[in-house]
Design a protein that fits this description.
77 residues; alpha+beta; 47% helix; 13% strand
């Protein structure tokens, strides 16, 4: 699936389920299948803008590590 298809599917599923809180633990470790932390930041940012839910990010030294660095990451931080 493309990133757009994944985002659309997650949005649809979360909306149908009435998700109001999304907690992401270990946020400083992007998926090994994701080629860059920028893609991870873009995906999370897109979902957080589209879903009527609160996003909570957890991890050690989160703001100093990807995906919270760079231009896209600064928006999440």
């Amino acid at each position: 699936m493309t990133q757009t298809q994944i985002t659309d599917a997650a949005h649809h599923t979360y909306t149908q389920a009435g998700v109001q809180l999304v907690m992401i633990d270990g946020i400083r470790h992007p998926s090994p299948r994701t080629t860059t932390s920028t893609q991870t930041a873009d995906l999370i940012k897109d979902l957080s803008e589209r879903l009527p839910a609160t996003f909570v990010y957890a991890g050690i030294n989160v703001t100093g590590t990807p995906p919270f660095t760079g231009v896209q990451g600064a928006q999440l931080a």
